[in-house]
Known about the structure:
This protein has helices spanning about 1-30, 70-80, 90-95, and strands spanning about 40-45, 50-55, 65-70, 85. It has 3 helices and 4 strands. By secondary structure, the chain is α+β, with helices and mostly antiparallel strands. It has 2 domains: about 1-35; about 40-95, no CATH class.
Amino acid sequence: MRIWHAMWVERIDKAIAAAEQRERERQQGERARPATPDWIMELGIGVGSPPSEVHVGGCHAAGKRRRAISREQALAALADGIRACIHCRPDTELGVLG
């Protein structure tokens, strides 16, 4: 019985150590994650294709092909006729009318 319990205590200790390691890695990943940009430009498919949409930084509808842009770049893009995302409404956030 004593050996059986010792084996289970060892298994429990290993499981606790693994869970603590996963938590340390998760916290390290959160610290290393770059900050969410204020504005995003969604890019078209292919090399040299024009941008397709402007998004607010944390928009869930932004595609994978994107880059961070400044407020001025977002305003210029919207003025140039690049579409504003219908979900996050960057034009409203930027105060663009029409």
